[in-house]
Every structure is written in structure tokens, then in C-alpha cells.
Amino acid sequence: MDKSGSNKNENLGEFNMGIREDVGGILNELMERAPGDVTGAALLRPDGLMIASVLPQDTDEKRLAAMGAAIVGTSQRTCDELSRGDLGEIIIEGSVGKATFSFAGTKGILAVLSPKDVNLGLVLMEVERTADKVKEVMEK
């Protein structure tokens, strides 16, 4: 779902329109709770497809979904191979901003974009809260 509320993803298999709308609402709530701290949010499938998103117009949602799923999958495998336990959040810091990835249950990956000079503690708190809400919707 983009900022206008339209859904660009029609082939999502098990995720019906109601679930996508509920998740889109949760992502919009995140954006409203953390204005300035969160510039975009998306829920991805572990296989690299987008479920719902509220992203800046210059963000390629297909690329975010594919790369986010690959990053999380590789990171989980690394945790497994090195006996580091369950994967928590992944934070990628670039020169102009951050991308945070977290599991939202077993069927979703939450991706959150934020500016470089953000209060990371607040963002992580919002990521956890949002992931819990999404998990409830996804696992109904």
C-alpha cells in the first residue's frame, strides 16, 4: 500500500485483502506515532514479496522486499550457524539513513526506514510494538 492507500500487490496468495488492509493501517499508525523518526515502513514476506507498505515515493518496494528478505534470511542463518540464538533486529546504517528489519511472527518481516540522526532507541521501541501488532493480525 502506498501513501495514497492504493495496493500495488495483487498476487499475495494466502494474504487476503482484509489482512493487507489491517497491516496497512498498522503501518500508517507507526508513521503517525513517530513522525520524523520513521520515514517509511513495510511488511515483507520471507520469500521476498511485499505485503503492505507506506514508503517514500523514491523507494523501490520490490527491491526493498527482495533485499530485506535476503538480509534477514542470511542473518538468521548466521545466527544458527554460529549458535547465537534467535535473530533480533537488524540495523543497517547508511550515509543518509537507517533501515531496520525485524521478524513480525513467522510470516512477516517488518522493515522500517529512518533518517540518519534518529533516536534509535525510540525507533526500536516502535519497531517492537509494531511487529507485535502485525504478528497478531498475521497469525489470526
Write a brief structural summary:
The protein is an alpha+beta fold.
Fold and architecture overview:
The longest helix has 21 residues, at 61-81. The protein has one domain: Beta-Lactamase, CATH 3.30.450.30. Strand 3 (90-93) and strand 4 form a beta hairpin. 41% of the residues lie in helices and 20% in strands. With 140 residues, it is α+β, with helices and mostly antiparallel strands. Helix 1 (17-33) packs antiparallel against helix 3 (120-138). Residues 24-114 form the Roadblock/LAMTOR2 domain.
Helix content percent band:
40-55%
Q: What number of domains?
A: 1
Tally of strands: 5
Say what the CATH topology is: Beta-Lactamase
**Largest β-sheet summary:** 5 strands, antiparallel
Q: In the CATH classification, which architecture applies?
A: 2-Layer Sandwich
If you compute it from the alpha carbons, what radius of gyration comes out, rounded to the nearest whole angstrom? 14 Å
Q: What is the CATH class designation?
A: Alpha Beta
Number of helices: 3
